[in-house]
């Protein structure tokens, strides 16, 4: 079984020619797939080519919506089924400026952060580039969009998985999703979120896509970070800040720092002061997130008052920061929660 979306346009043209068909069919075929068409739909391409692809067990749509749960605020939580039966999730967030799709890069996650639901059931496998693109195609179709009339405006790679731990497929995905003859996303509308794999942050900078980089820091010092993020044992915060500065230097993009506020762990005014000190020379914006409590994890969410106090301490120290409005709470908006419930139901 092969996924057609794993190939670039150029690679696909070569395959099509090797099947004895004309080169231009490759783009025609991709247009149909980006419009959400599958073998069961009417595709405006010669039947002989479609038959050859189907005989070669080439998959057109690698992702299917298995469940869609709409929240009171109109955000949508998707459970998608992959061709091998694995389940991943995604969230569609609806803002005044457009529709943001949160996408996954792995089935499960190796990182096992103490606050996150995605690592609870371990790591299963990387998603291929086509499976990452497939999430955008599927959600776009759900909104009534097409290739030419795209309804998804922004992409955040903040679903389950660590994007930089699946670097090769991430790079392929970036190349395809920004392709001018396909979805043509601007890098300004793409955010990659990472737990801080230092060498890969540098590699991403050198790749030249200039996407927004979001770093899940979540702690003001290494001692606390090691308690909640096992990856902190491999990379100290100082190395992450250096890599972030390098990313900023190469791409001229301001870095986003994600900081989940966890009661009694990292949310005192003193922690805010330590954080401000770490970030004072880094062009960045801090996104504070009130912990979304996860079944199976013991960490607690702080009061809104203490979150505001943390925010104000940062602002008083001239650090740009906001407390993120939490969308989709009632549909288990935090990473991996819906998938975990579904896996429990299946077992
Ligand atoms: N592995 C990447 C991307 C996935 S996590 C990373 O670490 O950045 C993306 C973001 O999800 C995290 O930064 C965090 O902001 C958020 N997140 C995960 N679990 C959460 C929870 N329980 N409550 C609030 N936010 C959570």
Topology (SSEs and partners):
Layout: E1 2-3, H1 9-18, H2 25-34, H3 47-55, E2 58-59, E3 63-70, E4 76-82, E5 87-95, E6 98-102, E7 106-108, E8 123-126, H4 129-142, E9 154-157, H5 167-177, E10 190-194, H6 198-207, E11 212-216, H7 222-228, H8 237-251, E12 255-261, H9 269-279, E13 284-290, H10 304-316, E14 321-323, H11 337-346
Parallel strand pairs: 1-2, 6-9, 9-10, 10-11, 11-12, 12-13, 13-14
Antiparallel strand pairs: 3-4, 4-5, 5-6, 7-8
Helix pairs in contact: 1-2, 4-5, 6-8, 9-10
Bound molecules: S-adenosyl-L-homocysteine.
Quick synopsis:
By secondary structure, this protein is an alpha/beta fold. Helices cover 35% and strands 20% of the residues.
Report what the structure shows.
The structure is a single chain. The protein has helices at 9-18, 25-34, 47-55, 129-142, 167-177, 198-207, 222-228, 237-251, 269-279, 304-316, 337-346; strands at residues 2-3, 58-59, 63-70, 76-82, 87-95, 98-102, 106-108, 123-126, 154-157, 190-194, 212-216, 255-261, 284-290, 321-323. The protein has 347 residues and is α/β, with parallel strands linked by helices. It has two domains: 2-59, Orthogonal Bundle (DNA polymerase, domain 1), CATH 1.10.150; 63-346, Aldolase class I (TIM Barrel), CATH 3.20.20. Strands 3-4-5-6-9-10-11-12-13-14 form a ten-stranded mixed beta sheet, sandwiched between helices. Strands 1-2 form a two-stranded parallel ribbon. Strands 7-8 form a two-stranded antiparallel ribbon. The chain binds S-adenosyl-L-homocysteine (SAH).
């Amino acid at each position: 079984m092969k996924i057609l979306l794993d190939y670039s346009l150029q690679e696909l043209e070569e395959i099509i020619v090797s099947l004895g068909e004309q080169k231009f069919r490759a783009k025609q075929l991709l247009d149909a797939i980006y419009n959400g068409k599958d073998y069961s739909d009417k595709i405006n391409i010669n039947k002989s080519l479609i038959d050859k692809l189907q005989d070669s067990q080439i998959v057109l749509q690698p992702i299917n919506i298995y469940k869609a749960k709409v929240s009171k605020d109109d955000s949508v939580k998707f459970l998608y089924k992959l061709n091998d039966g694995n389940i991943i999730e995604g969230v569609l967030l609806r803002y005044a400026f457009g529709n943001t799709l949160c996408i996954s890069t792995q089935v499960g996650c190796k990182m096992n952060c103490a606050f996150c639901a995605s690592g609870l059931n371990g790591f299963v496998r990387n998603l291929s580039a086509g499976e990452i693109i497939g999430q955008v195609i599927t959600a776009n179709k759900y909104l009534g969009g097409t290739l030419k009339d795209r309804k998804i405006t922004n992409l955040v790679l903040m679903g389950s998985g660590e994007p930089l731990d699946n670097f090769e497929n991430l790079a392929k995905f970036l190349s395809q999703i920004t392709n001018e003859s396909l979805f043509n996303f601007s890098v300004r509308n793409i955010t990659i979120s990472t737990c801080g794999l230092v060498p890969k942050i540098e590699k991403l900078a050198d790749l030249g896509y200039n996407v927004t980089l979001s770093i899940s820091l979540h702690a003001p010092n290494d001692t606390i970070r090691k308690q909640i993020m096992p990856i902190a044992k491999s990379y100290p915060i100082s190395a992450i800040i250096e890599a972030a500065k390098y990313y900023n230097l190469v791409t001229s993009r301001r870095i986003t720092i994600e900081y989940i506020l966890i009661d009694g762990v990292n949310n005192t005014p003193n922690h805010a002061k330590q954080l401000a000190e770490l970030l004072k020379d880094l062009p960045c914006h801090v996104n504070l997130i009130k912990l979304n409590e996860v079944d199976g994890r013991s960490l607690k969410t702080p009061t809104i008052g203490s979150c505001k106090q943390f925010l104000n301490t940062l602002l008083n120290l001239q650090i740009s920061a906001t407390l993120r409005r939490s969308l989709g709470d009632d549909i288990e908006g935090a990473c991996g929660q819906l998938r975990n419930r579904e896996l429990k139901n299946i077992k």
